[in-house]
Amino acid sequence: MIEYATIEHTRESWRLDEAVWTRVRNVIAFLMLLGWAGCAAGFFQDSERFFRSYLVGFLDVTLIALGCLFFVMVMYLTGSAWSVTVRRIFETIMVTIPLAAVLVLPILGGIHHLYEWSHSEHVAHDKILLGKAGWLNPEAFVIRAFVYVLIWSVMAIRIYTNSTAQDKTKSVKHMDSTSAWSAPGLLLVFLSVSTAAFDWIMSLNPHWYSTIFGIYVYAGGGLACIATVTVICLWLRRHGILAQSIHLEHYHDLGKWMFALTVFWAYIAFSQYMLIWYANLAEETVFYTKRLVGSWKFVSGLLLFGHFIVPFFFLIQRRVKRNLGALLAAALWILVICYIDLYWMVMPNFDKEGVRPHWLDAVAWLAVASTYAFAFWWQLKKHSLVPEGDARLEQSLAHVNI
Amino acid sequence: MENSSLPAALELKELHGVAAAFESPDKLLKAAKAVRKSGFTKVEAYTPFPIHGIDDVLGIPHSHLGRIVICCGALGATAALTLIAWTGSGDPLLFPYWTGLGAYPLVIGGKPLFSFEPSIPITFELTVLLSAFGAVFGMFALNGLPQLYHPIFNFRHADRITDDQFVLVIEKADPKFDATECTRLLQELDPVTVEMVEE
User: Fold this and answer.
1) Residue B6 is assigned to a structural domain of this protein
2) Phi, psi (5° rounding) for residue B149?
3) Overall domain count for chain B
4) Which one of A1, A273, A398 has the shortest CB-CB distance to B56?
5) What is the phi/psi pair of residue A61, to 5°?
6) Are residues B105 and B124 in the same domain?
7) Are residues B38 and B74 in the same domain?
């Protein structure tokens, strides 16, 4: 029989070791330097490409933070106990979201390189774009971008400060406050992420529209968020951090979430595809016909197998979810395929003949990811690694999957 | 402690096992460990709520329900695809949909007689439906439900199993079972009461 941890016999430290923290910070800072220097070089070499690559990288990592925001709110609303020991990791990723206000600037600056509707002389000759000009115009686009980030930041900071205050006071009033914020917050965040997806991705092809598109994008973000948390927890575990507090039963549950979101992503992706296929209207099918050209059709096929069929049959197995090595492999693969999914949404609008990988794709991602990672790592040291004051902590430590 | 010697009437009836009631989950777990350690295998616990770790202690293996569900799900998917192929296209084994000789070949919206896109929702629904049947009825079957009679209700404190008592039974079916020996063993484990339970 397995002996489970309780507060009394969890003797491990819930603080990051100074030496480990500094070493990792230095690595992240170096990668950040590398990423931004590469971005600068790329910008002068091929500014068109820089903006495209940067857009994909920015979306990929920002959606991970937004996924965490969603999950933390859901955890509070459902009163989930299993997730308490993992929650501080979610919360710390979530609270990096104000950085998006700065990281979104290159996209706003590159608006004329990315979005054809931003050219007024082009819009003037296009009846459809004229009709959409009330929403799709540069001023509104910029204002909306900041409003989105403001909504996300207010929610994230409110929840985070509540949670860390509870570490000390141990009072449930912080928990109640977060729950009260989360109910309307969830609605607000879902709507704003949805319209952000319309703005930043869907309007790359401004004639096309799909109302389910926001959910499709956010489903991928949620999946990538769980995969990220899994990878971070397993990395910490390898360095002996949180090895008792986050045990096999919590990893099993993270695996279940990865499985569930894989299915959810496929459900939404297929819903969008089938309705467009069935109606067979030229202005709608253009999204898919663009992605069945040249080598893009292999990427489309890769998404079908790599984003759904293979992870589905892999993660459905209990023994995979309870095998930390296999779970790590699944999480890393999901992070790769979620990036490819966004790449597949953005790039066919520009590289019309087929896939044209570019070194800037990797470098732009690295710049954004390392910046978020730096903020995450900085914040992680400030507070306990586990929400110590949470009323359900003991329950979470003793969590068992029957 | 009562009932350490057998009443004559009980000896004549068929015996189900020896039951002991405990006042806390901890005591039950400890007792179950001790009983299993003494080599008994046919041991059952009855508790007001699920107790973490009791499956491990009693040596109950992981349920086969998952396997039943995936078989039912696969059956549902196969049934759906066969149905679609047969009604829409033709012989499901040979799959000659291009001949249009199916049971009900109907062109709808200018679409081909068979395509995957509209078939997925039907396949999905039938997969989920049969998986759910497999899960519910499989659970019933594995638990031996519905069960109209169970000997544990002959235990005098049976009604308190749904309230505040935690009961452990060593069944007569156990190869090592011996009524007096089991009673003695259970009495050493700090129970509220130990009793023989009729079949």
Assistant:
1) no
2) -140, 135
3) 2
4) A1
5) -80, -35
6) yes
7) no
- Residues 6 or more apart from A357 whose CB is under 8 A from it? none
Domain assignment of residue A3, yes or no: no
Q: Which residue range(s) make up the domain with B82?
A: 65-142
Is the same domain home to B132 and B167? Answer: no
Angle between helices A47-78 and A324-346 (to 10 degrees): 130
- H helix or E strand, kind and range, residue B18: strand B15-22
User: What ipTM did this prediction achieve?
Assistant: 0.75
What domain range is A292 assigned to? 15-387
- Mutation for testing the A interface, residue in B29, B52, B54, B131 having most A CBs under 10 Å: B52
Q: What residues in chain B have their Cβ under 8 A from chain A's Cβ atoms?
A: 50, 52-53, 55-57, 62, 66, 70, 109-111, 117-118, 120-121
First to last CA, chain A: 13
Residue A84, beta-bridge partner list:
none
CB burial readout B72-107, b (16+ within 10 A) else e: bbebbbebbbebbbbbbbbebeeeebeeeebeeeee
Q: Tell whether A2 lies on the interface with B, counting CB pairs under 8 A.
A: yes
Shared domain check, B49 and B30:
yes
Q: What is the pTM of this model?
A: 0.88
In-domain check, residue B1: no
Domain membership of residue B172 (yes or no) is: yes
Reference A339, options A303, A293, A285; nearest CA is A303
Tokens for B86, please give them: 């047969």
Cβ neighbours around B164 below 10 Å, total: 11
Domain count within chain A: 1
* Residue at A349 is within a domain: yes
Q: Is residue A7 part of a domain?
A: no
Q: Which residue has the tokens 């979306």?
A: A59
| Residue-by-residue pLDDT tens, chain A, 402 positions | 344 555 555 667 888 888 999 999 999 999 999 999 999 999 999 999 999 999 999 999 999 999 999 999 999 999 999 999 999 999 999 999 999 999 999 999 999 999 999 998 888 888 999 999 999 999 999 999 999 999 999 999 999 999 999 989 988 899 999 999 999 999 999 999 999 999 999 999 999 999 999 999 999 999 999 999 999 999 999 998 988 899 999 999 999 999 999 999 999 999 999 999 999 898 899 999 999 999 999 999 999 999 999 999 999 998 999 999 999 999 999 999 999 999 999 999 999 999 999 999 999 999 999 999 999 999 999 999 999 888 898 888 888 887
